[in-house]
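Write out this protein's structure.
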Amino acid sequence: MEDFVYLDHAATSWPKPPEVAAAMMNALQSGANAGRGNYSLAMGSGRVLVRTRSVLAGLFGVSNAQDIAFTHNTTMSLNMAIRGMLKAGDHVISTMTEHNSVRRPLEYLRKTLGVTVDYLKVDREGQLDLQELENAFQLNTKMVICNHSSNLLGSILPVGDIGDIVKSHNAVFLVDAAQSAGSIDIDVKKMNIDLLAFPGHKGLLGPQGTGGLYISPELDLEPLMYGGTGSQSENSDQPSVRPDRYEAGTQNTVGIAGLLAGVQKVQSLGTNVIHEREWILTQRLMEGLSHIPGIKLLGPSLGAPRTGIVSFVVDGEESANIAHRLDRDYKIAVRAGMHCTPLAHKAVDTLESGAVRASVGVDTTEHNISRMLAAMDELYGNARSR
C-alpha cells in the first residue's frame, strides 16, 4: 500500500500510528474484562479506561473525567445526547450542515414525540448568521445542536460564540466534534458546551469502534442502554454514578487502549500544529484544483479557515465516476456522494450531483497532494483544454 494515496481522513484516519496497533495488541494479550473482577488482569484493563478518560478530559478541558462516557462512535454519542435529553413538546435548533447522525434522531423524535426542529440556513461557505440563531429561540427551546466543522464543506462554526448565545437562553448546547476533535482546540467550559460528541477513529487517530460523549455534570441524561455495569448490581435500576450510568455492557477495552495511544500521539504533535499542517495542504489542493476547467470548489474560499476537507464538483461528471477513476487508474482514495448530509448539499446546490471529497490528515504529504492534482489535471484539465 506504499504507493496508495489516502485522502479520506474525514471518514477515518489511516494508516494508524504504530503505537495504536501495539497498544491494542498488548491489551488483547494481557487484559481481561474491565470492571468485572478484582483480580490483577481485570484491574489492569480498568486502568486503561481510567487513563484514557483522563487524557481525553485534559484534551477537552473537562474538569471531571467521570463525565466522559465511552461509546462506539459519534453516531452513538449523538443518539445518547439527543434521545436522552429531549422530551415531548421540546423545541430544537440545529443547522443545515448537520450529519444524518443528528438529523435522523431528530426526525425520529419529531414523528414519535412531537419534538419540533428548526434547521438554520447557512451561506455558501457554511457559516451561520448568529442573529438568525438568536431569533430562532422559543419559550420551549431545549437544545441547540451544531457541528464544529461540516463534513462536506470543511467550514468551522464559531462554537464559542454560539455557546454564549445558548447559555444566555438557558438551553443545552450539543456539539458534534466528528471533524474537529484532534485538530482544533476544544474547551467545553470556555465554549459553554454541555454535551460533546466525538469519534475515536478520526482526528484522535484511534481505531474504529471507539468514541465518547462528554456530559455536563449539571445534566442527567436518560441512558440509551440499560444493563450490567459491574457496579450496584443488587439494584434493578441503572446506577446513578458516572460513567457507569451510561456504559452498560462490556467495554471495548482493546479499542480504548488504541484510542489512548492515538490521543497521546495527537498531544505529542499538538492540535495547533496538526491544524496548521492540514490547512496548508488544503490550500495547496484548492489552489491547484481551481485552475482546472469545470471544477467548482465547495465551502470556505481560498485563504479562509477550514478543516482538512476539500469538496468539489466537476461540470458534467458524476461524483462517483470521478472517485472510481481516481481509485482504479491512480490509486487515490477519495469519497463521493451525499456524505450523509443532504441538507448541506441543498444549501450549496449539489443535492442532485453530490460531490467529491478529498480530506487530509496527520500523515498526508505534499507528494500526496501533487499526485491528486496531477491525476485531476490529466483526467479533466488536459482533456478539456484540447
